[in-house]
Recover the amino acids of this structure.
DNA sequence: GTGAAAGCGCTAACAT
DNA sequence: ATGTTAGCGCTTTCAC
């Protein structure tokens, strides 16, 4: 079947191209009868408009882009649904764009903006070096959602939790329960995004409780295993266990990592929480179904997503607003931690 | 910053637009010095070409589209990486397109093909009614990867496992181990895709072992909870447990569902595999780290993905080939099943 | 090696 | 209410 264009349809219907355009775009100023007739032909011949041409011509498009690095993060995935829904309520469509980890977010964003005539863009996760400068040339509104940013970012709107603080709360909680030797499974050695922030919180809480920081209790995720996975958690936990170091609790900076740690502990013939207390981070659905159910710091997905959309809408409407929205995470006490 | 076009760059450099086009597209017939000069200006002014215009003009584009319904399937996600890699080796880029569950795959595919001038397209998962007819109008090569298709599909290339057969193997294995009362947690009542196929295999194995099919041992996933999730598995398993029915094994048609079942069993104060043997399906990474590790039927991701790409390449090259490639799944015996 | 110009398929003035 | 037409920004002949 040949590739039909709007011209072909116009010819078949004996009308002008603009009339066809009006029919397929629900333009009000068109005779319902003609519209009906055209739509029937469109249907019959399976005419599908070329979006490239449409995007090229369009001066505006009620679409918002969402940019993510990698699709392996359970936590991000669960937020897309909310974005789509919230954006829909505001009359916007949602364009998801996955980018490779070696690509530059500013460039990919700019390409997408030009291609789709986006009204705004949401960046999810990872780390963006100098958003105020690198993203300025986008010249459309954008919001950073759960992106690790430097404290001195002033012009970029962002929505997130305070990773350092929430991490502190976890370790503080463990200390108050009497734990003195607390291991951590943190990001890779060179992780200056959430991994670094969460490690900072761990250190500060320890210091506040007068507990000396012990490098032997810090397990960095392995470079040769994907980040934040059960496998990495398992491997690091196993090393920690075999190191002979003494500890009563382990804080894994992601839930999946904690899941892997569970396995290493069980294989070592130890029990949670009797021998080791375990805490995770993020609050993915899975944690509720682990045995014992995992105590974790849940990110308020719903709030984060809704606030991101709201902030973006305000930026689009030119409303001056709070640039930096920080939500509290919700600590969920379950069955993986005990008092000493 | 204004939106630069190729014309602006041409003007700045004092050359024609075609020369700029040649520079940014690595065209061989251009003076290296001019090219260098232009590229420097491009860099300096952050010129980013408009892909919509490019796609519109392009007559061909070495790109392959991958279409998926929903992004919540762990198993699919792990295949994207392989697709991207394999496609890259063949000189193709990879365009991921997520579609809503209420959208028609043929239409979305056609839109994408027109917009991006795709050379081929891969459909992942779900169910496609009459691919031979509905997808014919794409008039570019396509491959169905792990899509549930009717047996009488002749013209559409497809790569998958035999869900019915592998399901049979699982139940057969359980029977041979002495299990006579085997529960199943299957898809929703109206699931005629993998859910239906896997349930068929269960029934056939039972019959072959002279075990009467007992509808009370069949738990359908709940409509009001997302499919194939731990939560759904937990809920259904709990009902099964509370029903008072007697059984010694449960076969969950997806690993995550089995994960939820673990929790329900543990909450009931029962042990796996002593009280209940559990088997899953798909072989996602998580299963290895469950306690006890889950016996499951692993889909050969690597093989499926590579074969999909290979088949697509052959279709593109016009090579006549096998239309239907079926791989064996790999049964992984672990610690969640016992002999009766 | 480089530039001028046509045109990809569509939308949005502008006429009628 | 509908048709005509001018581009959107790019690539690609075709001259030079």
């Amino acid at each position: 079947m040949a590739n039909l264009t709007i011209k072909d349809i116009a010819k078949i219907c004996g009308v002008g191209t603009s009339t066809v355009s009006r029919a397929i775009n629900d333009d009000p100023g068109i005779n319902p009868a003609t519209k009906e007739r055209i739509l029937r032909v469109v249907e019959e011949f399976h005419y599908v408009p070329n979006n490239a041409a449409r995007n090229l011509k369009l001066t505006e498009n009620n679409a918002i882009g969402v940019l993510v690095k990698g699709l392996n993060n359970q936590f991000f995935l669960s937020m897309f649904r909310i974005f789509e829904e919230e954006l829909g309520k505001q009359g916007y469509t949602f364009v998801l764009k996955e980018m490779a980890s070696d690509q530059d977010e500013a460039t990919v964003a700019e390409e997408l903006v030009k291609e789709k005539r986006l009204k705004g863009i949401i960046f999810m996760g990872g780390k963006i070096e100098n958003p105020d400068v690198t993203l300025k040339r986008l010249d459309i509104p954008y919001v950073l959602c759960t992106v690790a940013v430097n404290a001195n970012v002033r012009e970029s709107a962002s929505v997130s939790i305070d990773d350092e603080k929430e991490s502190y709360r976890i370790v503080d909680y463990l200390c108050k329960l009497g734990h003195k030797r607390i291991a951590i499974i943190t990001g890779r050695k060179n992780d200056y995004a959430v991994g670094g922030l969460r490690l900072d919180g761990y250190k500060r809480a320890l210091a506040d409780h007068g507990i000396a920081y012990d490098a032997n209790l810090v397990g960095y995720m392995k470079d040769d295993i994907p980040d934040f996975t059960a496998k990495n958690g398992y491997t690091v936990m196993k090393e920690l266990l075999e190191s002979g170091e003494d500890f009563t609790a382990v804080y894994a900076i992601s839930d999946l990592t904690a899941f892997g740690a569970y396995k290493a502990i069980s294989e070592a013939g130890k029990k949670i929480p009797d021998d080791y207390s375990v805490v995770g981070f993020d609050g993915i659905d899975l944690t509720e179904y682990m045995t014992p159910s995992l105590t974790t710091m849940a990110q308020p997905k719903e709030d984060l997503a809704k606030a991101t959309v709201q902030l973006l809408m305000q930026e689009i409407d030119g409303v001056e607003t709070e640039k930096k929205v920080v939500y509290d995470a919700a600590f969920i006490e379950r069955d993986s931690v005990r008092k000493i």
Q: What stands out?
A: Chain B has three domains: 6-58, 62-161+301-327, 163-299.
